[in-house]
Write a structure and sequence with these properties.
The chain is an alpha/beta fold and 426 residues long. 37% of the residues lie in helices and 22% in strands. It is globular.
Length: 426
């Protein structure tokens, strides 16, 4: 049993899907294979915009039709003259999508909770579309497979946009439905369902995590994540011209890199694999003959510094209004609000008179945070920032940042972290 996961870039067009299917065909053998797919290209971003405009009473049909045409064009390019199965499937899914969207518009009450629920019901259509297109195309070209609805397998709680997996029930569903099978199953990343059969999502870019869930529950031989990069690099090559490829990383080293924001792998992916010592391969769908990066249980060799960037960050600083010190009671108040708003802290730093946090900039969360704490604290706020972590840093490796305007700086034994303006290239 093996698990493959393909991201949106590997499915962005008909030609990309043809390439993806060829990789599956070239790697299939007598062992069963589960293929987890993300939404095509930038579909998730488009669905987010459609939902926000729809809920805010703005025009959204132009973007919806553009997205629909994109999928229909892909379907048409994959079909031969004797078949329209893929096109029919896409049309049916968009009909369902429009009905669901109108229902959610009518139910929306303006709260964060209402938005998060609506988000999961709508954005999940990206994976439903891509997985159906891939499955239909594979069957059309003679690669027999079965389509599997991840919402019938992955059981979560009702924390919408960040569903927490119920491992016991998920394991039970997998054993009941798919533990023993032959051939290929196509399923969706990123999505599951709560106990009330409402669709949930596992967090942005959560398809890697889905692959790890299936691999763990099925005691898979391996998980392979196919990306548009040659493997795991020590930096984003679009920002750092001297990025280098890791041939091997330990689970621990990889987990720490994802924690700090390395975007090649979703942060929750490593633990389910490490618990059962399941190897993770990160390979290029553009150069499938290359071995990429292997992540496993052995200790890493000497690891050169990693430069990890997180864009779209906000820096929020809290100061007590009466000029007294920030004490434990103040921190308790701040952390309680952060927890209630489901905000993740990427970096925090405190001094005698202030407490600063760096978080992903989500407008509705930041606005609520400031609104709820502004009566007790003076709040300073910056957005459109970049958080840079240099893992296993050397003095030479951080010399390149000396001329940048640094809003916040932090050092530990192994890591150097700064918050700077966005879109810096080194």
């Amino acid at each position: 049993m093996r698990v493959f996961k393909f991201g949106g870039a590997s499915l962005k067009s008909a030609n990309a899907i043809i390439n993806m299917v060829s990789i599956v065909c070239n790697n299939k053998n007598e062992h069963p294979l589960i293929v987890v797919v993300s939404a095509m290209g930038k579909t998730t971003n488009a669905l987010e915009r459609i939902l926000q405009n729809a809920l805010n009473g703005k025009e959204y049909m132009q973007e919806l039709n553009k997205l629909k045409n994109y999928h229909l064009e892909t379907a048409s390019n994959l079909e031969n003259n004797d078949s329209s199965n893929i096109t029919n499937t896409v049309n049916k899914l968009f009909q369902s999508f429009e009905i669901k969207l109108k229902e959610l518009i009518d139910q929306y009450n303006g709260s964060i909770e209402s938005y998060q629920f609506s988000y999961d019901q709508i954005v999940s259509y990206g994976e439903l579309l891509s997985s159906n297109i891939v499955s239909e195309y594979m069957n059309l070209t003679g690669t027999k497979n079965s389509w599997l609805d991840a919402r019938n397998i992955i059981v979560t709680d009702s924390t919408y946009t960040e569903g927490k997996v119920n491992w016991k029930k998920t394991n039970q569903r997998i054993k009941e439905q798919i533990e023993e099978f032959k051939g290929i199953k196509i399923t969706q990343g990123f999505i599951g369902a709560d106990p009330y059969n409402n669709t949930t999502t596992l967090g942005r870019e959560g398809s890697d995590f889905t692959g790890a869930i299936f691999a763990n529950c099925l005691n898979a031989e391996s998980l392979t994540i196919w990306k548009d990069v040659p493997g795991i690099l020590n930096a984003d090559p679009k920002k750092f011209h001297d990025a280098q490829l890791y041939d091997y990383l330990s689970y621990r080293e990889a987990a720490e890199m994802t924690f700090y924001g390395a975007s090649v792998i979703h942060p929750k992916t490593i633990k389910p694999l490490a618990n059962k010592k399941i190897p993770l391969n990160v390979r290029s769908f553009e150069r499938p003959e290359k071995t990429g990066t292997l992540i496993g249980n052995e200790k890493s060799h000497k690891v050169f510094p990693a430069f990890i960037t997180k864009n779209n960050q906000a820096l929020v600083s809290f100061k007590v209004k009466d000029f007294s010190f920030i004490d434990e009671n103040n921190l308790t108040t701040i952390f309680h609000t952060i927890t209630n708003l489901n905000i993740k802290l990427n970096l925090m730093q405190n001094s005698a008179t202030s407490f600063s946090i760096c978080i992903d900039y989500k407008e509705y969360q930041v606005n609520r945070l400031i609104e709820e704490l502004s009566t007790q604290f003076k709040i300073l706020f910056n957005k459109k920032l970049q958080l840079i972590t240099v893992k296993n840093y050397t003095e030479e490796s951080i010399e390149r940042f000396k001329n940048e305007k640094i809003l916040l700086e932090q050092r530990s034994r192994n890591n150097y972290r700064i918050v700077v303006s966005e879109d810096i290239t080194f």
